[in-house]
User: What shape does this take?
Amino acid sequence: MEKTAIMAKLTDVFKDVFDLDDVVLTYDTTADDIEDWDSLEHINLISAVESTFKMKFKMKEVSTMKNLGEMVSIIEERTKL
Assistant: This one.
C-alpha cells in the first residue's frame, strides 16, 4: 500500500478516535500536535490502526515511534508482504 493511501486511512482513524472532523496530518505529526492525544488515547489509536490495517505492531515499535511518518513506514512495510 502506498503512503498516500495509508495517510488517507490514518486520517479517517484519527478523525474517529479523536472525534476531529478537520484534522490535518503530516508525517511529522506527534502526540503534541493533537490536544486529546494522551496515553489512554494512544492505546485506542494503536488498536484502531491495527484493526484498520489488519496487522499488529510490536511493542518495541509502539514505544519507539516518534511521529506519524514512522507509523506510516511500518504500515507500508507490513502491507507489502
The chain has one domain: 3-78.
